[in-house]
Amino acid sequence: MSSSLDRSVVTDARRLVVKVGSSSLTGPRGGLDGFRLQALATTLAKRALDGVQVVLVSSGAIAAGMGPLGLTRRPKDLATQQAAASAGQGVLMAAYTNAFTLHGLKVGQVLLTADDMHRRSHYVNASRTLERLLELEVVPIINENDTVATDEIRFGDNDRLAALVAHLVDADALLLLSDVDALYDGHPSEPGSRRIPHVRTVEEIAHVDVSGHGSQLGTGGMATKVAAAQMATAEGISVLLTSADRLVEAFAGEDVGTFFTPTGEKSPARRRWLAHATSASGRVVLDDGAVEAVVRRRTSLLPVGITRVEGKFAAGDTVDLCDVSGRVVARGLVGYDAEELRPLVGQRLERGTRLRTGAPAPRPVVRRDDLVVL
Ligand SMILES: Nc1ncnc2c1ncn2[C@@H]1O[C@H](COP(=O)(O)OP(=O)(O)O)[C@@H](O)[C@H]1O
Ligand SMILES: N[C@@H](CCC(=O)OP(=O)(O)O)C(=O)O
């Protein structure tokens, strides 16, 4: 029987998110490596034809656009990266369309921004589209919408996006495919570095150096892959990190790559979104009693338990809830604008009180259903 605690989850998964990095699809000087892309598509198509719902998160647009634009190095400035992605995304999708068509499968392009993950309405919309594509037996192929991403709000690498997509579609497993076949206990170019076959807790790999450079065409290196694995496993999703070349062995259940066991339980979709996909617009500092109430008793947060309001936010935005030492203990959707909330700090508002804006009080600063303890 399949268990999320061992590798059988990869072989038995009914819904899989597979992320492939630029380095696995392209040659060293950019340009798509049609042979590798076809091999990947063939392996995934076999899975899909066996009834597995496969969602592919594919990088490679910038690298694929380098050839058409006459670039021999990955561009460093945002505008040229966006131009290359614009030229390359079509090339990438054309290659995937041809490769999957050979197996009688259809593909659908989905381009997402960090903002689409952050905004609840866009997130829900993306989820609906992906569900419909899967129902229609189409393989969704997702990439960041590079042409509209800005330096401040972009994924840059696709590892985090892949973890968020795994949350979004509630995948059984996430496969992170790179040019390196596993996580190593030192940079793989260092003699003596050894493969780490299994990670059960974050602490186990706290000593591992993942800061080393990545491939010439990839973006995040190993650090973003480990962070993505932690995001997925925290929500009960198993992760296998290996190379695209080892995918067939991975599906055969062989001991390849690095397997990350789930560290947490699956939580409701809305909480998953709140905990991982949103970014906080401000902070609200809680006194000890309020921390106790929110974290242990899971109650709504009222103005009386707040000692300080930091930043600029509007009602409905996400805020971090911190204890007096500044440690973030929870995150939630705030019920007030920052300016409206500041004068209420520490106040015990009686029922029937009206705020200066005319709105009734007390309403919770963060309702318990809009709150996730971190
Ligand atoms: N501890 C480590 N274990 C494995 N790979 C590492 C480690 N530290 C750094 N790396 C580098 O991370 C690279 C993969 O990241 P990246 O180039 O961003 O790939 P991708 O394009 O697949 O996202 C590998 O080529 C490897 O050299
Ligand atoms: N969205 C970009 C991804 C950038 C990138 O290099 O990501 P990755 O190879 O996953 O580290 C692209 O398609 O080129």
Describe the structure.
- Keywords: Amino-acid biosynthesis, ATP-binding, Cytoplasm, Kinase, Nucleotide-binding, Proline biosynthesis, Transferase.
- GO terms for molecular function: ATP binding; glutamate 5-kinase activity; RNA binding.
- Its main location: cytoplasm.
- Pathway: Amino-acid biosynthesis; L-proline biosynthesis; L-glutamate 5-semialdehyde from L-glutamate: step 1/2.
- By secondary structure, the protein is of the alpha/beta class.
- The chain folds into 2 domains: 8-272, Carbamate kinase (3-Layer(aba) Sandwich); 280-373, PUA domain (Archaeosine Trna-guanine Transglycosylase, Chain: A, domain 4, Roll), CATH 2.30.130.
- Helices cover 33% and strands 20% of the residues.
- It has helices at residues 8-12, 34-49, 61-66, 78-101, 114-118, 120-135, 159-168, 221-234, 247-251, 269-277, 288-296, 338-341; strands at 15-20, 53-58, 106-112, 138-144, 173-178, 198-199, 238-243, 258-260, 282-286, 306-311, 318-322, 328-334, 366-373.
- The strands form 2 sheets. An 8-stranded mixed beta sheet has the order 3-4-2-1-5-7-8-6, sandwiched between helices. Strands 10-9-11-12-13 form a 5-stranded mixed beta sheet.
- Helix 2 (34-49) crosses helix 4 (78-101) and helix 7 runs parallel beside helix 8 (221-234).
- The radius of gyration is 23 Å and the shape is globular.
- 43% of the residues are buried.
- The model has no long low-confidence stretch (mean pLDDT 91).
- Ligand VHF binds at residues 21-23, 59-63, 85, 143-144, 146, 157-158, 218-220.
- Residues 21-24, 157, 178-180, 183-184, 187-188, 208-210, 212, 214-215, 218-222 line the site of adenosine-5'-diphosphate.
